[in-house]
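Human: I'm a chemist; would you kindly supply sequence and C-alpha cells for a protein?

Assistant:
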Amino acid sequence: MNITLHKLLNGSMSPKVLDSFGKPGAGILAGNINMLGHFDECESVPDFKYCLASFNLSGEIPELPIPLLYGLCVPRECSDYDVYQLGIDTETLLPGGRKLPLETVMCTEYPHHPFTWQFALTVTFFSALFIVVVVSSLYHAWYHSPACHPRAFIPLDEQCTLGGEESTVNGTNDGQDEDVKMDDPKSLHAQRRLQESGGSTMNKLLFSFALPRNLPKLLSTESSEGSIDCLHGIRVISMLWVILGHVFSIMIMVPLFNPLTGTSWLSRYGFMTVANALFSVDSFFVLSGLLVTYLTLKAMKRRNGRIPWRWFYFHRYWRLTPALAVITLFWLFIMPYLGHGPLAQSYGNRGPCQKYWWTNILYINNFYPTKGESGCMPWLWYLANDMQFFAISPLILIPLYHIPWLGLCLIALLCLASCAVTGTLVGVNSFGVTIMEALAPSGDPNEKSFSDVVYFKPYCRITPYLVGMVLGYIIHKYQKMSIKMRWPIAVLGWIVACGVGYTCIYCVYGNYNGHVWGVAASAVYEALCRFAWGAALCWIIFACHYGYGGWVNSLLSYGGWAPLSRLTYCAYLMHPVIMFMYMTHMGTATYMSLALFAFYFAGISLVSYGCAAIFSLMVEFPLVSLEKLFLPRA
C-alpha cells in the first residue's frame, strides 16, 4: 500500500487509482458505513485491480451489527495476503478514530476463479442437455407433422409408422378411408393411442425431453379427479411469501446506503407480514404432510394395505434430487464466473460448497455442518427437513391405515414432544422472537445461533407436517362434500382460524418497538406458533375442500394457479440463485425504500418463475416422464 501511495505522489501513477479508493460519504451515523469505491475506474487502470476489505464491527460498534466494506485499488501483482498484511488504517475513515479489526481481503481476478475440469464438465452437461431438448422437440414436431404421414386422407395421429410397423387400412395405400377393424390392435384407434403415448420405448424416451409434449402439461389448468384444488393457490401464494421474506432478509445483508431505514420498517405494524414470512415455510410443511398422507392412504386402500416401500422412497428421492443436483452444479461451477462488480469475487467464493455439497443430496445439511451459515446453499435446509419427515412417515401411515386411533395418538405425542423440545431450547438459550434473532449469525465460533439450534432442526419444525397428516387422513376417510356443518359452526371456524393465523404473525409486534418479551413468553410462542399456524391453514383447506370456503375457495381453486403451482419446487431452488446473481452485479450501496423493495420483489419473482419454467421443462418434467416409463408405479 505504501508503494502505491509513493508512486501516486511521485506522479508515476494515474490519479484514477486514488480516486477509485473508497471514501467516507454522507450518512455514516445513519448506517452508510460501506465505502466500496469505484470498481470500473480501478479496473480501467492498467496493471491495477480492485480489492474489497471487510472489517468486523460486532465488537466495536454494537449498534451497527453489519460488516464495513472498503474498496481499494492495488497493483495487480499484490495478492490478497499482501494487502491483508499491509493493513488498512480505519482511524481516519470513521468518526471518533476507531480502529477496526480487518477480517478479510478479497481482490478481483479474471476469471474470478481458475477454470477447472469441473467447470468444463458442467458446461458440457448443460450444452448436452440443451441439445437433447432441441433434438427431442424437433423430432416430436416432425413425428406429429404431415411430413411423417404420407397418407393424405387419414387423420394426422393415425398415419405414422409405429414401432416399425405400418398402419393398415383395409390393406390399401391409396388414401381411401375404408373400413377399419376397431378390434384389431393395429387399427387406427389403437395406433392413435400408441402415437399419443409416443409409440415405441425409444420414442417415449426421446419425447420425455420434448417441449411440445411438456409445455402443454405445464400450462394445463385442468385438475384430476380427487384432487384438492385449493392447494394450487395456497402453494403459489406461499412461494411468493417465501420470496418476499428472502428479498428483505438478503437485502439487509448487502451494502446499503441507509440500513437503519430498512430496519426501522420492522417497527411498522403492517410490515409484520414480511418480518414473519418465516411461516410461509410452515405452510409447505402442512401441504407436504397432507399430500403424503392422503395419496399414500389412497394407494394403500387400492392395494389392500400393501405398499412397495422401496419405490415409495425411491420416487421421493428421484422427484427431488436430480433437479437439486443440477442446481448445485450451476451454483458451484457456473455461477462464480457470472458476476461483475465489487462483490462478485467474494460472493463467488464456493469454499463451503466445495466441502459440504454432498450433505445437500443426502438431505442431512440441517445437521452437518453444525453451523448453518458455513454450509452449502443454506436455503436448502427446508428440503432436508421435508425429506426427513417423509422418511419417518411410514411409521405413522401404517398404524394410521390399520389402527387409526393409534396413528392419531402417535401424531399427538409427537406434536407434544416437538413443542416441549422447542420451548426448552428457546428458554435454555434465551432466544428472542424477532427476525433479526433468526437471521443473525453467531459471532463466536463456539456459540450457536437460533437457526442452528431451533430453526433448521426437524424436531422443532415437524408440528405443521403432523397437523397436515391429520387433515390428509380426514380427507382420505371422508369424501368431498360428505361432511355437513351448520353455517354458524363454519363461520366460527373461519373466525378462529383467521384469529389464530393473525395472532401468529402480529402478536410479536411489541418486540420490535421496545417491549421485548421475557424468556418464558418467547419459549411459549416458539413452542406453539408453528402448530397453531398449521392448524389455522388446515381449517382453510378443510373448509374449501368440503364446500365451506365461499369466495376464498373460488380464489384459491382458480385454474390459473395450476401452472405456477407446478413450478413451485424449481422456483424455490432458483430464486436465491437469481438474488445472488443480482448481488454480484451491484456496484454501489443500495438505497432502501418501500417502493424499490416492491420492485425488487416483483422483478425477482418474475425472473425466478421464468427461469423455473425453463428449468422445469428441461429437467423436472423429463425426469418425471422417465420414471413413469421405467419404474413400476407405487
About this structure: The longest helix spans residues 594-630.
